[in-house]
Amino acid sequence: MAQQVKAVIARAKGAPVEVTTIVVPDPGPGEAVVRIQACGVCHTDLHYREGGINDEFPFLLGHEAAGIVESVGEGVTEVAPGDFVVLNWRAVCGQCRACKRGRPQYCFATHNAKQKMTLLDGTELSPALGIGAFAEKTLVAAGQCTKVDGAAEPAVAGLLGCGVMAGLGAAINTGNVGRGDTVAVIGCGGVGGAAVMGSRLAGASRIIAVDIDDRKLETAVRLGATHTVNSRTTDPVEAIRELTGGNGADVVVEAVGRPETYRQAFYARDLAGTVVLVGVPTPEMTLELPLLDVFGRGGALKSSWYGDCLPSRDFPMLIDLHLQGRLDLAAFVTETIELGGVEQAFERMHHGDVLRSVVVF
Ligand code: APR
Ligand code: ZN
Ligand code: ZN
Fold it and tell me: Which segments constitute the Enoyl reductase (ER) domain (predicted)?
């Protein structure tokens, strides 16, 4: 039986989001319906409502979520009703070249639920990142559900579904930060902050946080930064060099997504260091670099998509570390809000006032 639930949608480009009633169908083959317990507010949701991603309005927003599997469709073996799960936006296919080479992080045939959720008048909804979790219940592909320890608070667990995983994974998976490494993180919002935390977890010796906002630098220190640089007033490349014995950092994580910070990341690394690009630029952005610098500097320039995560490997592991008190994921939850508070949360996010606002149900 299809069900009617409350949800937050973006009806038209630029219009404020609204709470409305949507219809969630029963799960089809390979699908699951999840009762959402918490969902974080991410920049990507705002990006959808501003028309920055595509024009398939109306969107059902929300994609950093955790909840309880309510029902599953035919053939689902990954999860069962009652499981506490974190949702991911990349259910891998297992069949493509990347999957078969053992690199499912680069699967190019990820999938979502085939059936559509709708408005009461039958209008089909486009779920943000194939999830749509600012909703009491949502329909996803079963492969988008990863079971984790039910002792974790939903508001905390859900954050692994996007930004926090992107940042942790940028340091741990893509940057491969090791014990004793020096790390610089440029941009310390939710994603960069998580990269700081991941670097600490990995045993980095110096973790240099760079931001233009002193509030973010204070937070970064709480998350594990050992040094801070305000790049509004101080040249970050020089400062990072000075703090790393003149060498540059072993790993530099760029978590802003702008040409000037890409440039800083490029020059702030040790000659044999790794630059990890996790900040997402816009299509019109370009960066000019002397080729001799590109050629002459060794190391690696890597982009990090979703923190190169494998949800089935990373989500349960990170939740375990959190429950053992070894990874303070709760530090990212600035506030919990109700479903009706998403629009105001966008406003606070826009002003840089929060790491994460999380809708709890
Ligand atoms: N130099 C340094 N820091 C900057 C600069 C700059 N020129 N411009 C902005 N920042 C800082 C902001 O002050 C903020 O702390 O970058 C941070 C960005 O953080 P958020 O706005 O919270 O964004 P976040 O969710 O962390 O995402 C950052 O990573 O995954 C991507 O799409 C995401 O491109 C985005 C980036
Ligand atoms: Zn694949
Ligand atoms: Zn997100």
Answer: 14-359
> Is the residue at 319 inside a domain?
no
> Are 115 and 54 part of one and the same domain?
yes
| Residues 43-89: tens digit of each pLDDT | 999 999 999 888 999 999 999 999 999 999 999 999 999 999 999 99
- Domain check: are 171 and 145 in the same one? no
In short, whether 235's Cβ falls inside 6 Å of ligand 1 is no
Q: What is the distance in A from the centroid of ligand 2 to the CA of 103?
A: 8
- Please check whether residue 84 is in contact with residue 65, taking contact to mean a CB–CB distance below 8 angstroms: no
Q: Which of 42, 43, 287, 306 has most ligand 1 atoms within 8 Å of CB, for mutation?
A: 43
Tokens of 42: 């991410």
Helix locations, the chain, DSSP H: 43-49, 97-100, 154-157, 163-169, 190-201, 214-223, 236-243, 259-268, 291-296, 311-323, 342-350
Q: Read off the pLDDT of each residue in 289-296 and give the average, rounded to a whole number.
A: 94
Q: Is the CB of 41 under 6 A from ligand 1?
A: no
* pLDDT above 90 for 194: yes
Mean predicted lDDT score pLDDT of the chain: 96
Q: Is the ipTM, as predicted for this complex, more than 0.90?
A: yes
Is residue 160 pLDDT above 90, yes or no?
Answer: yes
Cα angle: 27, vertex 151, 32; to 5 degrees: 5
Sign of the torsion angle spanned by Cα atoms 279, 285, 289, 291: positive
Q: How many domains does the chain have?
A: 2
253 in a structural domain? yes
CATH code for the domain in which residue 273 is found? 3.40.50.720
Does the pLDDT at position 108 exceed 90? no
Would 311 be classed as within a structural domain?
no
Nearest bound ligand to the CA of residue 103: 2
Q: Which domain range does residue 225 map to?
A: 167-304
Band (102; pLDDT cuts 50, 70, 90) = confident
Q: How far is the CA of 106 from the centre of ligand 2 (A)?
A: 7
Q: Are residues 252 and 117 in the same domain?
A: no
